[in-house]
Amino acid sequence: MSVLAMKRVIFLCTGNSARSQLAEALLRHQAGHFFEVYSAGSQPHDIDPRTIATLQKFHLPVDGLQSKSIDEFAGQSFDYVITLCDKARQECAQLPQAREVIAWDYPDPRTSNNPRAFELTLQELNERIKMFVLVQSKEQKSALTPVINPLQLFKCLADETRLAVMLLLQHRGTLSVTELAQALQESQPKVSRHLAQLRGCGLVLDERCNQNVLYQVHPRLPDWSVRVLHEAAQADSQHIQQLAQRIQERSNA
């Protein structure tokens, strides 16, 4: 399992025939290793032939592009929902489990009299997506390098539940909120709050896996903090084994 899962992005416009298709192709070309990219429309139409021609003119891949309805993605989770017109923003922005909705507004090149409308839209989207990728890459780099000192570590782990969560994650590798709640016999909202605090301290990372979010001890914690956690786990090994057994019993049920 990777340290950081690919972030899921979906571009939305009304017809899913021009702007959102251009954006999907651009982001996949620029950072397909980091993003899982989709596009859809509130009232989908066939892809405009000029969309394909423009992408091919600039040697961008068109494989797999097809017009899709937003209904096909009902119930799915996305890290970023990016709308490309005001109408799409009003109709589609409230996707379930969308971590962040971003509104970009671009005129529809299909209705323009400018013969270069599709090329200009591609160029404008290209610059915007370059900036989006740059910001995301900086955030990823920051996430991979936690900064924590001993006082912060001890404050963060002073709570019994948070300490148990850390030791369980160290013992099992990755766990979901449901599994942690089962082990600790606590409510999922309470466990989620503690996980958010641990993530804010830079002690854990979350990773999306299908419809679940899995948590793990941050793989780049300083060596001294890893030793502290190891010593704590050894001192409380019997208790941690008991908690882990509850997870195993649930898996076998």
Give a quick precis of the structure.
By secondary structure, the protein is α/β, with parallel strands linked by helices.
Mean pLDDT: 85
Widest beta sheet: strand line-up? 2-1-3-4
- Catalogue the unreliable spans: none
**Global Rg:** 22 Å
**Count of extended strands:** 7
Report helical residue fraction. Answer: 40-55%
- Main sheet attributes: strand count, strand direction, barrel closure: 4 strands, parallel
Spatial shape: elongated
DSSP helical segment count: 10
- Structural class comes to alpha/beta
Estimate what percentage of residues fall within beta strands. Answer: 15-25%
- Ends: how far apart? 25 Å
Order of helices and strands: EHEHEHEHHHEHHEEHH
Q: Which SSEs are present, and which pair or pack?
A:
Blueprint: E1 7-13, H1 19-31, E2 35-41, H2 49-57, E3 78-83, H3 86-92, E4 98-103, H4 117-143, H5 150-156, H6 160-172, E5 175-176, H7 177-184, H8 188-200, E6 204-209, E7 212-217, H9 223-235, H10 237-252
Parallel strand pairs: 1-2, 1-3, 3-4
Antiparallel strand pairs: 5-7, 6-7
Helix pairs in contact: 1-4, 6-8, 6-9, 7-8, 7-10
